UniProtKB/TrEMBL annotation:
Keywords: Membrane, Transmembrane, Transmembrane helix. The chain crosses the membrane at residues 24-47, 59-80, 92-109, 121-143, 163-181. It comes from the Bacteria. This is Uncharacterized protein.
């Protein structure tokens, strides 16, 4: 893969436009991430039904799943409906909406933990840090593109935003799944020890 192909992939990831049919487009990446969070949510619900899920992890996974499903749906609507240049320009305000959604989810997670949970799972801390990072970089991108119309100036920031945002999102879902894998491993070890005795 040469630098031109990498540059094209990054352009596909960063810019929302209806003609972008690449598997690396913002629409497809949002879809992949939403599917991963749906799977995490279903896993969390099943573990909660079996009384194996911690309340803290359930709150965080539920909130993050709702967030990524909602933001993925919004990205899909914009990508499918933005046809004219004016609509595409107006669609760049989605980054402000994303920052507000992230802030609401962050406050929800913190508030519920303060009111009802005495135990804070490690996913809680990763989610809080990740959400604050996303809020900050989304607000800066919204100011850059949506307010000051610096779409082509400071183009490096668009790439930086995309890389950091996707990295944070994928890192959080990976941490969730590693946590579930560790739970499963401990469960299997307990069962094996019980059957050996």
């Amino acid at each position: 893969m040469d630098l031109e192909q990498i540059s094209q992939i990054l352009n596909d990831i960063v810019y929302v436009r209806p003609s972008n049919n690449s598997n690396w487009s913002a629409l497809f990446i949002s879809s992949y991430i939403s599917i991963a969070y749906i799977f995490a949510f279903v896993t969390s619900v099943l573990l909660a039904i079996n009384k194996s899920e911690s309340y803290s992890r359930f709150i965080v996974v539920r909130a993050l799943s709702a967030k990524y499903i909602l933001t993925g749906f919004l990205m899909m609507l914009i990508q499918l409906n933005a046809k004219t240049d004016a609509q595409i320009d107006a669609s760049q305000h989605i980054y402000l909406a994303y920052a507000l959604i992230d802030y609401v989810i962050l406050r929800y997670i913190q508030r519920v933990h303060l009111l009802t949970s005495k135990y804070y799972n490690n996913i809680y801390f990763y989610a809080v840090i990740g959400l604050w990072i996303n809020i900050l970089i989304q607000l800066i991108l919204w100011l850059k593109i949506g307010v000051f119309d610096f779409e082509y100036e400071f183009a490096w920031y668009n790439y930086t935003y995309s890389i950091i945002s996707n990295l944070v999102t994928v890192s959080i879902i990976a941490i969730i799944f590693f946590d579930y894998a560790e739970m499963l491993f401990r469960h299997v070890v307990r069962k094996l020890n019980a059957s050996a005795n």
